[in-house]
């Protein structure tokens, strides 16, 4: 079979039991991470999740040692995840505490907790390698994830954890949105901002822990953040960002897992992240309003508008049009003839432009406000930019409408 | 809703017992707030009468906004007690609507004008209730009161500063509160917006509500407000604008920062 065939087989969940489990697990994880991570992104605290992820490692090591001492082989996934959740919680609370109670800023707290916990974790893993008991092989897979030998129970853990995370998103979406948008207003309404932030981080922590098996602690932050950032390109509404991010995360997880199953030796976690990044790149360029191409097109259109306006005003003042682009625009619109003499339509449009210009002049005087200045492009109808009472104010200042520039 | 009884009483033209005795809308007792070891607000007592239009006035860095935020529990108080309509703050907080400074939020946040106003209905919607048509209509009615109904579907980043301020006011209106606390509502807004906002605030007062603004424009104090609180870390003076907003009190509040020539030009109570 070619790689494409294997990929398609994996997509249809026909590439074997293990591959199917991994694809489903990764898809579920992606949905939970995308939806939950959105609030982290909106609250601008993406890096806290990186500290939390790195703080899972000591817990993995300690849980392994404890389970071996209790007579097991130390490989029970729920046990290891419980350990990682506990140490990640300690890491999270430490970041919180340092940022709140000391003079250190949050970024310093994140850096310190991330590196110290990760260092402790690596030391523990090294010590474990020298232990004579337990099956320590594969513990280091928590760093970058590993899907080889994924069990049915592992998929169940991810499904249950992911489901709980989505439930938390559903329950907390309003307070989390309010706190992310306007924390002071939220506090004034009696919301416990700190508790809601902690709940949000707890949600992220949960996603991180269930993602350890497939994606690993180093890359999980990408699954939390990239889908939300990508979704933001496509919509201006919080609830839609959450839904789109969940969908993008799910698609990335599922596609990534299928891709990595289509050839031996392709790591699953990194491929999932690369798929998510691919979707991000597509959105960055192609998104209709916020994308790079759309911005370029907008800029070009804006440039043409400015030239058209300048040209019309020059015609209105009886000045010569010299700029080659302005001439091209006016020619194309039929405003001037080949010998640069204005046409009938050109004269009428020029008079209208002059009158519009006067209205905007008054608007700029009244609105000492950059947002309004930024919206001035000479062509946008003033009614879509200003409220009715604001326009009434302008008309009051202009006085009775007089015939300006000749044509009405 | 906890305040319906009071509203009904107000509608009947008879103030309830607690307020008939002159209970203040907002009472602060010996409130101190400090960032680090330098008090931003020191031992301030204040008593904002119910159904007044009140202003907190003072120079930059005098702790005006901090005073408001501490009264609301947004920043922690070192000491002091807050009473709202005669009740402890916590029991009465749902009767307060807060309008923060415009600059305090990220206007690129993915949300539309109507969604921001719907945040005002947070208490009614709770965690899970779906936004229904009546909620949407209530929010639109609030937007209409501030002249922004045509902008309901816009992303908030496309608004001018004055329009953003109106949206914040509409969100507060949606709460149906009895006491409105506004932090510099006229800062950097256009003339039409200032007019629209003051009209809404005056209509609130007519509806027996209480309004308290942090205010920086001394020229409009007498026209807009009937009660003033002059602060510069400490309280300098408080009382009816007609007897409190005087040249002496302003000099005491602003010190050298306000030239006496400037004070001479101000519209002061006759």
UniProtKB/TrEMBL annotation, chain B:
Keywords: ATP-binding, Ion transport, Nucleotide-binding, Transport, Zinc, Zinc transport
Residues covered by the ABC transporter domain: 26-258
SUPFAM superfamilies in the cross-refs: P-loop containing nucleoside triphosphate hydrolases (SSF52540)
Entry-linked CDD domains: ABC_Metallic_Cations
UniProt GO MF annotations: ATP binding; ATP hydrolysis activity
Pfam family, one: ABC_tran
Family from the record: Belongs to the ABC transporter superfamily.
Protein known as: Metal ABC transporter ATP-binding protein
Naturally occurring in which organism (per UniProt): Stappia taiwanensis
């Amino acid at each position: 079979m070619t790689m494409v065939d294997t990929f398609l087989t994996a997509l249809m969940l026909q590439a074997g039991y293990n591959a199917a489990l991994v694809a489903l697990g990764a898809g579920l994880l992606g949905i939970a991470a995308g939806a939950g991570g959105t609030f982290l992104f909106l609250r601008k605290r993406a890096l806290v999740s990186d500290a939390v992820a790195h703080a899972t490692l000591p817990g993995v090591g300690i849980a392994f040692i404890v389970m071996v001492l209790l007579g097991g082989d130390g490989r029970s996934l729920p046990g290891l995840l419980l350990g990682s959740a506990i140490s990640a919680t300690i890491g999270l609370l430490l970041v919180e505490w340092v940022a709140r109670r000391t003079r250190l800023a949050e970024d310093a707290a994140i850096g310190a907790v991330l590196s110290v916990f990760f260092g402790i974790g690596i030391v523990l893993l090294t010590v474990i390698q020298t232990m004579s008991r337990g099956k320590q092989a594969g513990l280091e897979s928590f760093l970058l994830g590993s899907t080889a030998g994924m069990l049915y129970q592992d998929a169940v853990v991810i499904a249950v954890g992911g489901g709980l995370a989505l439930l938390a998103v559903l329950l907390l979406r309003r307070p989390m949105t309010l706190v992310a948008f306007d924390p002071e207003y939220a506090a004034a309404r009696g919301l416990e901002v700190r508790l809601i932030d902690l709940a949000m981080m707890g949600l992220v922590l949960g996603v991180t822990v269930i993602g350890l098996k497939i994606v690993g602690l180093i890359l999980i932050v990408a699954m939390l953040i990239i889908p939300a950032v990508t979704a933001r390109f496509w919509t201006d509404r919080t609830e839609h960002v959450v839904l789109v991010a969940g969908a993008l995360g799910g698609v990335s997880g599922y596609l990534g897992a299928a891709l990595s199953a289509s050839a031996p030796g392709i790591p699953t976690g990194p491929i999932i992240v690369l798929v998510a990044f691919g979707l991000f790149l597509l959105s960055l360029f192609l998104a209709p309003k916020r994308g790079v191409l759309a911005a370029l097109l907008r800029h070009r259109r804006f440039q043409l508008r400015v030239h058209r306006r300048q040209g019309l005003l020059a015609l209105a003042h009886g000045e010569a049009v010299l700029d080659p682009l302005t001439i091209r625009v006016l020619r194309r619109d039929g405003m001037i003839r080949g010998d640069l003499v204005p046409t009938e339509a050109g004269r009428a449009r020029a008079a209208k432009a002059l009158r519009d210009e006067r209205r905007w002049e008054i608007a700029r005087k009244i609105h000492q406000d950059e947002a309004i200045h930024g919206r001035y492009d000479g062509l946008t109808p003033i009614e879509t930019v200003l409220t009715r009472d604001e326009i009434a104010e302008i008309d009051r200042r202009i006085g009775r409408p007089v015939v300006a520039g000749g044509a009405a | 809703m906890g305040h319906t009884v009071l509203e009904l009483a107000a509608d009947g033209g008879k103030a309830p017992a607690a307020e008939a005795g002159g209970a203040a809308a907002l009472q602060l007792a010996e409130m101190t707030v400090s960032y680090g070891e330098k008090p931003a607000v020191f031992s301030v007592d204040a008593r904002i009468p119910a159904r007044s239009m009140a202003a907190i006035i003072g120079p930059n860095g005098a702790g005006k906004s901090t005073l408001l935020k501490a009264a609301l529990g947004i920043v922690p108080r070192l000491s002091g007690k807050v009473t709202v309509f005669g009740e402890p703050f916590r029991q009465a907080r749902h009767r307060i609507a807060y309008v923060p400074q415009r600059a305090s939020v990220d206007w690129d946040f993915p949300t539309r004008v109507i969604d921001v106003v719907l945040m005002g209905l947070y208490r009614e919607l709770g965690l899970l209730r779906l936004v229904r048509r009546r909620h949407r209509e209530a929010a639109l009615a609030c937007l209409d009161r501030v002249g922004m109904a045509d902008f309901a579907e816009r992303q908030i980043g496309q608004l001018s500063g004055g329009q953003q301020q109106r949206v914040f006011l509409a969100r507060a209106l949606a709460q149906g509160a009895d006491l409105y606390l506004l932090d510099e509502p006229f800062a950097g807004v256009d003339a039409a917006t200032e007019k629209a906002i003051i009209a809404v605030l005056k209509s609130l007062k007519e509806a027996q509500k209480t309004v308290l603004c942090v205010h920086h424009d001394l020229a409009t104090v007498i026209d807009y407000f009937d009660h003033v609180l002059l602060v510069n870390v400490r309280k300098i003076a408080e009382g009816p604008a007609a007897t409190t907003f005087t040249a002496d009190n302003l000099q005491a509040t602003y010190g050298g920062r306000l030239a006496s020539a400037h004070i001479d030009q101000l519209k002061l109570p006759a």
